[in-house]
Amino acid sequence: MKSSSQIKTVQWLLDKNKKNLLDLSVPIQRNEIWNALHKSNLIASILMGFPVESLLFEEEPNGKIYKVLDGKQRTLTLIQFVNNQFKLNNKIKVKEIDGAQVTGLTFNKLNPELQQTILNYNLTFTIVRDLTNEERELLFFMRNQAVSLSRLELTRVLMGSEVLDTLKGLLSHPFLTETIQLSDKAKNKYTDQQLLIQFLILEMKPELGFSGKEIMSFAEEPLRGNGVPQDVENKLSNVMAYLHDAIGEDANDLKLNRIHIPMLYLIGCDALERNVKPAVFHAWMLQFFIDISKDNNEYKNATLAGSARKQNIDIRTKYIKKHFADYLAQ
Description:
Elements: E1 2-9, H1 10-18, E2 22-23, H2 36-47, E3 55-59, E4 66-70, H3 72-82, E5 96-97, E6 100-101, H4 112-119, E7 122-129, H5 133-143, H6 151-159, H7 161-171, H8 174-179, H9 184-188, H10 191-204, H11 212-226, H12 230-247, H13 251-254, H14 261-274, H15 278-292, H16 298-301, H17 310-329
Parallel strand pairs: 2-4, 3-7
Antiparallel strand pairs: 1-7, 3-4, 5-6
Helix pairs in contact: 2-3, 6-11, 10-11, 10-14, 12-14, 12-15
């Protein structure tokens, strides 16, 4: 790996983006998570001449395309603001600069001097070259230990690009995109990926719970080491297809709490093995949610504090499997 530090203007960054020479789709990177205030504070910092943390780019062998390894939020913010996609938030500390109001304004509404201040602002880039996949992932992981990355975001790095590519295919399944009704905010926090990892734990390492520590451990071994076996990938796809069909039009009304989804996955596996018709599963599921909404019961208690612990997962599993078996026996 080779690296160098370079100074480039915001205009340089914009030019690269306009020519499609910036790759913002590196799998280990976070989705866009900055809100309007975060974005506005970055622009205000630049207008005030404050230093901005360096960006980490990987220069591809052709010397033209740059992968954005760290600094995606800042890069997107600058591109969006110069393209007039958001106004400076009224809650930023800096209301005026050199006597000119800036809050509530888009880029094209700023006076020309302030526009040039942004375009000519010098950004510091760390440019790396000749990275292997492992070096790229390790570099991102080590660089982000001191910033506010969630456990799940770090887990994505631990899994590695190959596993993320496998998950990407499963993430487009209608069960995850339509049936469980995840909000955009939840998707940006990778809740859909968290659910997939929980399904994989149930299939590949059922002795684990769902705590952040256990999920990170699972990501490194066996996921990163061995990948997702083809038979497991096929099973996940088949069970999700069954659940999508079985839950059907009730998805909008149910708005499933995600704590129940891994349990429904387990029963979906059982139902497929027993050749239970989707309509029967559907009727059982509605009855199950009615029953657990009543007085205190073991399942309900195991969804409270400590629900990610293996002990509570086992309690929920035992309860829901018995409920399903009893329903079929009627």
